[in-house]
Amino acid sequence: MLTLKANYFAEELGYDITIILTDGKEKPFFYPLSEKVRVVNLDINFEELWTCSFAKKIVVYLRKQRLYKKLVRQELMRLRPDITISLLRREINFISDIRDGSRKMGELHVNRANYRNFEAGDANFLKNLFARFWMKSLVRKLKRLDRFVVLTEEDRQAWPELTNVTVIPDPLSFVPTRQSPLTSKRVIAVGRYAYQKGFDLLLQAWSKVEKACPDWQLAVYGMGNRQPYQQLAAELRLDRNRCHLEDSTQDIEQEYCDSSLFVFSSRFEGFGMVLIEAMACGLPVVSFACPCGPKDIVAHGEDGLLVENGNVEQLADALIGLMKDAEARQRMASKAVANVQRFRMEALAGQWKQLFTSILS
Asked: What is the pTM of this model?
């Protein structure tokens, strides 16, 4: 998302964009970056913390954080930007204290309830106590920002302490060159193999779906450890010829267009980028109404179906209903392509431009 917006703001709006990084100095950029966008890598190497013992981690973190604050201050005083945007990493702790003359903004891509809390089982009393203390501290820092941007209306309501919240969703990551003909009897899901994405729930639902619709297939694409999900599929005795747990793909557009239905089984989200990608490719969707994203994206009964979050039976029944109703799939697919146009970068750039103008006036 950072790359998409930086490229568009520099190329199309003529903004002077600088990205400040802390790590990966010798690594190539994952996504193509415009030559008009300048990059400053401070080479702090916070990744070193991953290899430290707990005791050493505290000392190393404090040292690196002091260095980070010093170097960011130097860069901002040199650049003298009009606006500085924090993606709510470590710089949120000090960004508002830097008197470089810029307006300070924050941007969050995870819903509040799951910020810094991504996996099941990774919590105990002390961690929960620290999390509450940390959240109170974060809210105090967010109040000092000129504007705080979240991705959904649902998440805006999760920050009742703040009066500076603006909602601007993520843009489409690509504009499809084609749409699915909806002729393939295949359901597709896309995401990391992680607890958040709920593929264990999807496989449980599929165990019912594959019996009701024996001529349909499920294909899941994503990065991560597939072994636990392969084991679950075996325990559920799913048909290996019709339930495919795939690695990530370099051509996700093709995979969307080779499918006729998209399923979204996340337990929680920051937004749900793959939802709008699939809809742009002409797929109706069946999704858990999880926090946050699907309820802002999917118009229930119009371009897809929303079911109770975590309800495997409802997910299965909604899939079966659409898999057996070709006319409904066609109708919803047409609406999906039309409705998702509001997430194109050209449409959202106007909201960003208006926001920038308003905080500088």
From this structure: 0.89
- The domains of the chain are located at 2-171+344-360, 186-343
Please state, in angstroms and as integers, the Cα–Cα distance from residue 270 to each residue in 1, 34, 137, 231, following that order. 13, 26, 21, 28
Architecture of domain 2-171+344-360: 3-Layer(aba) Sandwich (3.40)
CA distance 218 to 310: 19
Does the pLDDT of residue 121 top 50, yes or no? no
> What is the band of 234 on the pLDDT scale with cuts at 50, 70, 90?
very high
141-164 pLDDT, tens per residue?
999 999 999 999 999 999 999 999
Closest CA to 178 of 274, 284, 281, 261: 281
| Whether residue 105 has pLDDT greater than 70 | yes
CATH architecture of 186-343: 3-Layer(aba) Sandwich (3.40)
Cα 28 to Cα 246: distance, rounded to the nearest angstrom: 26
For residue 347, the model assigns a pLDDT of 92
Q: Are 244 and 219 in contact (CB under 8 A)?
A: yes
Residue type (1 letter), 312: V
> DSSP states of 154-183 as a string?
HHHTT-TT-S-EEE-PPPPS---S----S-
What integer is the mean pLDDT of 252-261? 97
- Say if 2-171+344-360 and 186-343 have the same CATH topology: yes
